[in-house]
Write a structure and sequence with these properties.
17 strands; 686 residues; 24 helices; eight-stranded mixed β-sheet; TIM Barrel; Spore Coat Polysaccharide Biosynthesis Protein SpsA, Chain A; 14% strand; nine-stranded mixed β-sheet; alpha/beta
Length: 686
């Protein structure tokens, strides 16, 4: 017997006039709940205690609405049904059987061809053909109009893309294939599509979808490498014949001067898709064959026009982003040369909360303080708008992924600052939250690079002693979960950050070997334990020597090309920067040597979780607070900020703070000369 109470039904809705009928059709499945995610101007009314209306003030794309429902659902299986789709009894029997069998794949259905006018039947027939007869059995297609999936599988796939209004089902299918989830479209899982099309409405629908499909496929090329065109061979031939109808007869008539030949070619091209249209129309509407043949050239022309328009706008988009990139780099160059206090690097603490209490964390004493220690989203918005474009922006904590609105916060920073490198240190504990957040960020990220630094401080037992039981395996699981995304989104990099302390100094070099061979990161950031003040006891020689040995081991791997490292513009510069930066830190720690003027408070700043703006994590001097009426630009140009910059320069301030030393290595002139010489030597050698 079918076990009731295992299914949650999710219905995305906008201005639907069929909700009651759609809900009535799925009630026969005895679902736990029917969740209607509605973003219509006014709240719909469905008089049924099983139905929950989630009314949202702003209109959501269908993918975002489905994700919202999935997060609220409690069933083992999720049945998604569009608000104009009514399941047949055969479809309900199919769903019952799949649930009883414990299916663990993605199963979508088709439309019944009957019902509606001729153009509605045409659309339903085309969709049915594409999903069943027109697709390759090895690469089946998928429709989101109605489909069934395990809730755990849906979450593992990351849900739907939330910002595209059409083609989200194909994007979802492409991701499912890459992530190893099998999809199937079944003819017995059928439903009646209540949407009515006119001849003009169907043309507009295909034009809109063709335009969006072009843009989505170009935006995520790796994702769609294994996904067919969604038409199938018969539909492709029919489309081509319809398109040639407008071109070939005219060309033939002009070249031969024969109107009869032109007319014959036109008739032949009109009749070319006859076999396909007869199969399509004979199911329920045999009299519509002539309508289909006459309509096909018009439909083909609209699709072609939509693709050409999309191609033009795509080229404009690429040129625009290229121009913005050049302008941002020039702006950064001006900031580096003129040095008015505006940054090229920002580190922002997004939360004071963390689930771990690592023994070497300089921040651990404040983690148990009352309050969340999180600046509101609107403060980040106004502050980052005032900062403007930067080269590097890092969001730190605490543990950044405990913040629930992190994805939105990243979007704000990405829009306002357009960082070329966006990085996050994380302890890797929150596997699913990290996966979903990164997926959402990558889906929105048209430019820039996303880098995650996973904290690992030694082999499993040692790491767990330093950071907490089970934390090593959590990092390993989270990196494994995200690794498939690096194949789909080439601007995602999974790195490791390891801190050399007295506890792990002796094993640090060997641990670099383990990281390279077992974790395969793009890069490794090796940090030296430091105190959180300029005045501090000297570090033990054993600790510094262990750090140096680990750095030398890593430099060897870099020179051998054993890591993926960075493939973006400037990646080669960062490789040399890493080697030089670590040498500078070693000399400061070992010999208390002044190695380079510091750019903290000039080109880089830290925004603390309470809003204080400081030049770095070491100096406690604040130049202002982002929650005050003073803007960021006013802070960095204030008298106090200028005096602090002067003190940093005149006192030969020095420390081993890695972030500031990165900027120093790149943009302090004595170090820049060394970088240029290293790069020139590398070019000559290659």
């Amino acid at each position: 017997m079918f076990a009731a109470g295992r299914i949650s039904v999710i219905i995305p809705s906008y201005r639907s006039t069929h909700l009651a009928e759609v809900c009535a059709a799925v009630k026969g499945l005895d679902p736990i709940e029917i969740l209607v995610i509605d973003s219509s101007p006014s709240r719909p009314v469905v008089d049924d205690p099983l139905v929950t209306i989630v009314h949202l003030p702003d209109r959501l794309p269908p993918g975002a609405a489905r994700n919202r429902g999935a997060k609220q659902a409690s069933g083992e299986f999720l049945l998604f049904v569009d608000s104009d789709v009514v399941l047949t009894e055969r479809a309900r029997a199919f769903v019952r059987h799949q649930v009883e069998a414990g299916m663990d794949r993605l199963v979508s259905g088709v439309y019944a061809v009957d019902g509606g006018g001729v153009f509605s039947r045409v659309q339903n027939g085309i969709l049915r053909y594409r999903l069943t007869e027109g697709s390759d059995a090895a690469t089946p297609l998928f429709s989101s109009s109605h489909f069934l999936v395990r809730r755990s599988r849906f979450r593992a796939l990351g849900g739907f893309h939330e910002t595209i209004s059409t083609y989200e089902d194909v994007e979802f299918l492409a991701r499912a294939r890459h992530l190893g989830v099998r999809a199937e479209c079944c003819a017995e899982f059928d439903a009646v599509h209540l949407k009515a099309y006119s001849w003009l409405g169907l043309l507009a629908d295909y034009g809109h979808k063709g335009y969006n499909a072009f843009h989505v496929r170009r935006r995520y090329p790796r994702l769609f490498q294994a996904v067919p065109s969604m038409l199938g061979k018969d539909l492709e031939r029919a489309w081509l014949s319809g398109l040639l109808f407008w071109l070939l007869p005219v060309v033939a008539g002009v070249l031969t001067g024969s109107p009869l030949l032109a007319a014959a070619i036109a008739l032949a091209l009109l009749a070319a898709p006859l076999g396909f249209t007869r199969r399509l129309a004979s199911r329920e509407a045999p009299g519509s064959v002539l309508v289909l043949l006459a309509y096909w050239p018009l439909l083909s022309a609209v699709i072609a026009a939509a693709i050409m328009a999309a191609c033009v706008t795509w080229i404009r988009r690429v040129l625009w982003h290229g121009g913005v990139f050049v302008a941002d780099m020039l702006r950064a160059l001006v900031r580096v040369i003129v040095r008015t206090g505006l940054p090229v690097q920002v580190i922002a603490y997004v939360t004071a909360r963390c689930n771990l209490r690592c023994e070497h964390c300089f921040y651990k004493e404040t983690l148990d303080a009352p309050g969340r220690g999180e600046l509101p989203l609107e403060v980040f918005d106004s502050t980052t708008r005032n900062i403007g474009p930067v080269l590097w922006f890092s969001l730190a904590g605490g543990e950044p992924f405990v913040r629930k609105d992190l994805s939105r916060l990243i979007g704000v920073v990405q829009t306002n600052c357009r960082p070329k490198v966006f990085s996050f240190p994380t302890n890797g504990w929150y596997t699913e939250e990290t996966f979903e957040t990164c997926l959402r960020v990558l889906q929105r990220m048209e430019t820039g690079n996303l880098i995650l630094f996973f904290s690992l401080d030694g082999p499993r037992d040692m790491h767990d002693t330093i950071r907490g039981a089970g934390s090593f395996d959590r990092v390993k699981a989270t990196m494994a979960r995200l690794r498939p995304l690096t194949r789909l989104y080439p601007n995602l990099y999974l790195n490791v950050i390891t801190t050399v302390t007295e506890r792990n100094a002796d094993v640090a070099p060997a641990f670099i070997d383990e990281l390279v061979h077992e974790f395969g990161p793009s890069a490794i950031s090796i940090n030296l334990f430091r105190y959180h003040a300029l005045e501090h006891p000297p570090l033990p020689s054993r600790l510094i020597d262990g750090y140096k040995a680990a750095v030398d081991r890593y430099a060897q791997y870099l020179r051998e090309g054993a890591l993926r490292h960075y493939g973006f513009f400037g990646g080669r510069i960062l490789l040399f920067k890493e080697i030089l930066q670590k040498d500078l830190i070693y000399r400061v720690a070992k010999f208390d040597e002044f190695v380079t003027p510091c750019t903290a408070g000039t080109l880089s700043y830290v925004i603390m979780e309470d809003g204080r703006v400081t030049p770095c994590e070491i100096l406690s001097d604040s130049i202002g607070n982002v929650t005050s009426p003073m803007t960021f630009r006013e802070m960095v140009r204030s008298t106090g900020a200028r005096q602090l910059r002067a003190w940093i320069t005149e006192s030969n301030c020095k420390c081993t703070y890695e972030c500031a030393m990165s900027t120093n290595t790149l943009f302090s002139w004595p170090m820049s000369k060394r970088m240029i010489r290293s790069l020139a030597g590398d070019v000559v050698a290659s």
